[in-house]
Design brief:
The chain has 197 residues and is mainly alpha-helical. It has helices at residues 8-14, 21-32, 35-42, 61-73, 78-87, 89-95, 107-119, 122-137, and strands at 139-142, 150-153, 170-174, 177-181. The strands form two sheets. Strands 1-2 form a two-stranded antiparallel sheet. The longest helix is centred in the middle third of the chain and has 16 residues, at 122-137.
Length: 197
């Protein structure tokens, strides 16, 4: 099958009336991340394959990088991200996988890739680069679960018509990252048949 030819699944999903937040998020990341630069950062440290090398052929760096990013963005285990890619069209599309010709890298392969990044401290460099992109675009990424990872456009405190700080906005630091905005307080809906008094 031609890599650019849409599959039946692509056509089916293309006819949906609503696109999920997850898909919008992943499409934004696909268009924003400088993939060649990030792959080039990992390449000198990646496992070479060729004559004299034993074992399975190494998966492409780009494939493993995308799987690693999905794991981090959606807070998934090695096994969890493997399963999520099989279950999620948006994730499979982000990975660039066609199940007719290839499968999702298994959890052990991701584990080895993640350990390689950790050993070479490449994960830190990648997410420093990501934060620079987000700062330039004025984005904040809120994650924590597979259903709510999203990018929130948040202007800096004084970029408004009066060049003043909004008194309801505050900044906070989490780890080494500063965030600016306001807390959203959500009141849960009562269960059917219960009183709110």
């Amino acid at each position: 099958m031609d890599a650019d030819q849409p599959s039946f699944t692509d056509i089916e999903y293309g006819n949906r009336r609503r696109v999920s937040r997850r898909e919008v998020f992943l499409e934004t990341m696909q268009a924003t991340i400088p993939w060649d630069v990030w792959v080039g950062l990992i390449e000198p440290h990646y496992y070479a394959s060729g004559p004299g090398k034993k074992g399975r052929k190494a998966k492409p760096i780009a494939t493993m990088l995308r799987m690693y990013l999905l794991q981090v963005w959606f807070s998934l285990s090695d096994e969890g991200v493997e399963e999520a890619i099989y279950d999620s069209y948006a994730m499979r599309r982000f990975m660039g996988l066609d199940f007719a010709v290839e499968q999702v890298p298994d959890a052990t392969t991701l584990l080895h890739f993640r350990h390689l990044l950790e050993k070479q401290r490449l994960g830190e460099k990648l997410f420093e680069a990501q934060n620079e992109i987000f700062d330039q675009e004025g984005w904040i990424m809120r994650g924590g679960s597979i259903v709510d990872a999203t990018i929130i456009a948040a202007p800096s405190s004084t970029k408004n018509a009066t060049a003043t700080r909004d008194p309801e906005m505050h900044q906070t630091k989490k780890g080494n990252q500063w965030y600016f905005g306001m807390k959203a307080h959500i009141v849960p809906m009562p269960a059917p048949g219960t009183s709110t008094r």
